[in-house]
Amino acid sequence: MKTSTAVLTLASTRVALHAASFLAHNWILAPYTAPWLLGDGHPQSIALTFDDGPDPISTPLLLDLLDANDIKATFFVLGEMVDRQPGLARDILARGHELGTHGYWHKNHLIRSARSIRYDLARALATIETATGTRPTWYRPPYGVVTRADLTAAHAEGLRLVLWGTWGRDWRRQASPVSVMADLRSRFHPGVTILLHDSDCTSYPGSFQATLQALPQLIDLARSQRLTFATLSNHGI
Ligand SMILES: [Zn+2]
Q1: What is the maximal distance between C-alpha atoms in the chain?
Q2: Nearest to 218 by CA among 92, 78, 97, 73
């Protein structure tokens, strides 16, 4: 018994040491500890941002809706998706929107090494530049998990990190236009940066429909408060 207890203690000590070492190199920033990541901008505008595209099914529908309302937004595209749909990435830019990078693969950076995070970001940037001839200036890591490696990699690539001030939680199975609007309203304020998704590639299948159906209400809400829609680069962050 004593031997097995000692082995267990040794094993748990090793696990604790490994975890401590890992966390020392991979700590994350939560928005409440880093308000500069929330993307609060000019108090007369709000910034719409869409993650996880470009998606051949949902992104064109969203682009048409934005065009119809004369709204420009920022799309945090995945390198993997741009590789599959380079023409759609070019179309987003051609219609006056801005591209940011969401990395190449949609993986949680808490379980990735600093080296793989650097590689992922460089690959995403190269993919977007090859497809569109444009280099993004904004970076939002998958799941909004900002590790020390993300800060270092973003700085080395000359990128600005931004998360969001409110979200629609539109990736969920239970998401509906009503729930998306309720979530958006909970932290809605002048100058806010809003997180939504133009693809369900990492979400519940079909969840983008809730986003599309909520958007007209969001547009009405913003316009009732005389707020304009700005890309992140025009948002005064
Ligand atoms: Zn995402």
Answers
A1: 73
A2: 73
Where residue 38 sits, what CATH number does that domain have?
3.20.20.370
- At 25, phi and psi to the nearest 5? -100, -10
Residue 129 CA to ligand 1 center (angstroms) comes to 20
User: Number of folded domains in the chain?
Assistant: 1
CB atoms within 10 A of CB 232: 23
Range of the domain at 133: 2-234
SS3 content of the chain, % helix, strand, coil (to 5): 50, 15, 35
Q: pLDDT for 186-221, tens place per residue?
A: 999 999 999 999 999 988 888 899 999 999 999 999
Judged by DSSP in three states, 98 sits in strand
* Tokens matching residue 204: 């519940």
Return mean pLDDT, the chain. 89
Q: Write the pLDDT tens digit of every residue in 99-117.
A: 999 999 999 898 899 999 9
What is the CA(196)–ligand 1 centre distance, in A? 9
User: Catalytic positions, please?
Assistant: 51, 197
